[in-house]
Amino acid sequence: MYVAVKGGEAAIANAHRLLADRRRGDRSVPALRLDQIVEQLALGVDRVMSEGSLYDRELAALAVVQARGDMIEAIFLVRAYRTTLPRFGYTNPVDTGAMQVERRVSATYKDLPGGQVLGPTFDYTHRLLDPELAAGAGVETPAQRPVEAEAMPRVSAILAREGLIEADGDMPLDHVPGDITREPLQFPMARDIRLQALSRGDEGFLLALGYSTQRGYARNHPFVGEIRIGEVELELDVPELPFAVPLGSIRVTECQMVNQFKGSAKAPPQFTRGYGLVFGQSERKVMAMALCDRALRAGELGEDVVAAAQDEEFVISHSDNVQATGFVEHLKLPHYVDFQAELGLVRRMRAEYEARENEDKAAEEKREAAE
Amino acid sequence: MRGQEAREQAGRKALMATLAHAAADEIASLWNESGLPSEAEILRGPETGLVTVRGRIGGGGAPFNVGEATVTRATVRLPSGRVGHSYALGRDKDKAKLAAIADALWQDPAHRETVESKLIAPLRAALDAARETRRVETAATKVDFFTMVRGED
């Protein structure tokens, strides 16, 4: 028998009204505009786009404000929104080699074509809070260096010339890229599907797993071959036009992780690779993604699977923070009937336990008396 | 003929790329100054949907799906019967409509020159200037390594 209990409509309505009030906060403080969030909390917006798996700055900014700055709630809002839109198709794969680079560093080659370009980085800052920023001090315009434009080939292409590094990851020619927004997850899964899951995966979770590989759980000797951030052009094939239609550009971060590999029964000694590509500017996320991609290739490379980061089902099943928060947070919803049933069960078990205890005690007293 | 057709397509694609990158209010204000007609029948949209962005494993390997992006598109027909299309990232429906009209007008020899000179050329100049600024600002953060010589030899 199922008995539905109703109630709480007024409480819920008032709770949401209270939420709207608290979200707005003190009315004497100006309300945030979305363009302020897009411009000044850009990396937060990027995280919402990357894990919300939807590239749209204004929508991500709206989500951040609506969620009062709760990033996972904002990501949830964006994921829910994207299910309301029709799908026009799959773009042609972006060419990160043709990126308009805003930052590019390599930890493996000092003098590489195009050079080390720091861009707008937190690296080398002293991580000291800046009271002048709090006081609203003005900001200098950036320095400029009018030099000839230089090509920036991907570092992997340079290493490939020596034949000591594996090629970019290939799939069989007839392989159609999997899409986790269309088909449920199935294990084992191909690398392309893993990469899609990792690209939208939770930054904190992937960071912790990537860190675990460095600390010795599935150690794989990583180097940052290259990180690049910048804009890439998008093109879409459509039936009404005889050419791929240009859509504009998006900012992405790419990481080529290079890993020393001593060889196995399946592959000779060489440098193997882990790959990361995410929406927006997010080095931490893309590095974590590349570390996890490499660790998850253990089976393919003939390595023993001994650590969490190498366990595909563990990593991919738990990397999605919208799924994770849904299941964890559902625990706070009413479980009154479940709990009543459990309460009855625990009461009965306790009564049986106490009855057994009393029997044992009585038997012991009897034995002592007999002695 | 083949070469001409290819040039024609390249020109149209370049127009669409410029419009896709440009902001709606820039297009609208240039349009007002250009004297271009904006009368058109809407055949489709403007409608917003998603495209799934693809990357390549390792940068150059097999394709994989990275995530989605919002795109708005429109199709229009001019009184002359010419049909124009537009696609661009984002959710701006006014921009989608104007860009589709621009595409249709561009295909008409009577309007192409005006579209190119009054609309596309200034938009492209602004985009190129913005890209160049970003490039030289980025270039200023390039590391110049130098070697410190220590000791006698």
- As a whole number of angstroms, the C-alpha radius of gyration of chain B is 21 Å
**CA distance, first residue to last residue of chain A:** 56 Å
The fraction of residues in strands of chain B falls at: 15-25%
Class from helix and strand fractions of chain A: alpha+beta
Considering DSSP H and I runs of 4 or more, what fraction of the residues of chain B is helical?
Answer: 40-55%
Order of helices and strands of chain A: HHHEHHEEHHHHEEEHHHHH
Strand adjacency order, main sheet of chain B? 1-2-3
User: What can be said about the biggest beta sheet of chain A?
Assistant: 4 strands, antiparallel
What is the terminal separation of chain B in angstroms? 69 Å
Structural class of chain B: alpha+beta
Observed structural traits:
heterodimer, A: alpha+beta, 14 helices, B: alpha+beta, 4 helices, 50% helix, 25% strand
Q: Can you walk me through this structure?
A:
The complex is a heterodimer of chains A (371) and B (153). With 371 residues, chain A is an alpha+beta fold. Chain A folds into two domains: 9-82; 96-120 and 149-326, no CATH class. Chain A is 42% helix and 15% strand. Chain A is built from 14 helices and six strands. Chain A has a four-stranded antiparallel sheet. In chain A, a hairpin with an 8-residue loop joins strand 5 (245-261) and strand 6 (270-279). In chain A, helix 2 crosses helix 4, helix 3 (42-52) crosses helix 4 and helix 3 packs across helix 5. Chain A starts with 8 loop residues before the first helix and ends with a helix. Chain B is an alpha+beta fold. Chain B has helices spanning 2-21, 24-34, 93-106, 109-139, and strands at 41-56, 63-77, 83-89. In chain B, a hairpin with a 5-residue loop joins strand 2 (63-77) and strand 3 (83-89). The longest helix of chain B has 31 residues, at 109-139. The radius of gyration of chain B is 21 Å and the shape is extended. The relative contact order of chain B is 0.17. The interface between A and B is large, with 84 and 53 residues.
